[in-house]
Structure prediction request, 332 residues.
Amino acid sequence: MRYMTGSFGIAATLCLWFVAALPGLANDSTASLDTGDLVLVPNADIRLEEEDLFISPDLIRVRYVFFNTSDQAIRTPVAFPLPPLVFGEDMNYAISPEDPVNFVGFRLWVDGQRMPFQIDARASTGDGRDITGLLAKYGIPITTFTADEAGFMRLRARLDALPGAAMDELRAAGAIHGPDWGDGFQEAWSANVAFYWMQSFAPRSRVVIEHSYTPVPAYGFYGRYDLEARYLFDEACIDDSFAAGARRRMAGTEMDMLGATILRYVLVTANNWRGPIGRFRLTVDKGSTDAIVSLCRDGIRKTGPTSFEWEGFDYRPDRDLTLLFLAPLPTE
Prediction:
């Protein structure tokens, strides 16, 4: 199922081989989606000269400067894939978007001009069968996101009321769970969503590509037990100073708990471009002076009340980012 924004078509057909898998999350939390860099069909002539990455719990914004090192014009598909959305029991994405397909509000600029793009959205079962057409046959959205609770209730009521023959066909295809899950409609598929466009790179010239979107982090609780169990210590490089700060903020709270936001960002796809990133700048904004943040980045420096910055040159990412934001729980 393809959704168009803008008014241009793309002749190339993209495969979603580059979509990363959704990792499992510990603790009782809502599901998250890892997101990250643009993906280019590996190309030996295009160099990523600069990347400026801004990350906060509510916004991710990236600016890239690419340079075509060859004497030939290059036209190639560029994509921004999301990892699979897994739908089913115990999977709860804490978002209520107006657009159920572009649910991260993806926006694109090339050389300062707002640009259209296409969205490829497909659904598959756990054993890899494509059921996009089957869902469309019965008017079932690939994502079941709605803008509000009322819309969600209307959607669930409509899906629960599908005719028995439709339920049987969906169950036989592996699109929904069997009757042992109850009488209602219970999806059992994954949705793959990617934003893509054809990009031209003039010979010996630079192209600036920018995009922004709303991340889908995991939300939950983080308490003294998590510190003792060293949860996320390695993945988010939690050190003694961060742990001490967390304990201070937990002291006096009702359950020795803080609100946790876990945001993962895929960096290693940048290695598809020619050579290392010439200059890479990371800006992290924790959003509140009451919050603390931990991530694996030596030499990061504070640049404002809530912001931090790290810069590297000839940078080759060898691991992805995990950011842990902790903040006091809201009080009534």
Notes: The chain has one domain: 2-327. Confidence is low (pLDDT under 50) at residues 1-31. The radius of gyration is 22 Å. Residues 2-327 form a domain with the Immunoglobulin-like fold (CATH 2.60.40.3680).
